[in-house]
Write a structure and sequence with these properties.
Helix content: under 10%
Strand order of the largest sheet: 1-2-3
Number of strands: 3
Shape: extended
Protein name: Host cell factor C1
GO molecular function, one term: transcription coactivator activity
Radius of gyration: 17 Å
Number of helices: 0
Order of helices and strands: EEE
InterPro entries: HCF1/2 (IPR043536), Kelch-typ_b-propeller (IPR015915), Kelch_1 (IPR006652)
Strand content: 25-35%
Distance between the termini: 34 Å
Organism: Osmerus eperlanus
Largest sheet: 3 strands, antiparallel
Pfam family, one: Kelch_1
């Protein structure tokens, strides 16, 4: 970075969820998750076998 320039660094922040509605994913590993704007998307993974479930949460 050149001297005299500034950068904007995004800092992750956690927020406690006090309540929710809808299905909750079963515990799993090997899944993929991504945050896109106000959405949290969780796909796949498994615990006792592989699942192809897709969960989308509006944060």
């Amino acid at each position: 970075m050149a001297s005299g320039t500034s950068s904007s660094v995004l800092q992750p922040r956690w927020k406690r969820v006090l309540g929710w509605s809808g299905p909750v994913p079963r515990p799993r590993h090997g899944h993929r998750a991504v945050a896109i704007k106000e959405l949290m998307v969780v796909f796949g993974g498994g615990n006792e076998g592989i699942v192809d479930e897709l969960h989308v949460y509006n944060t």
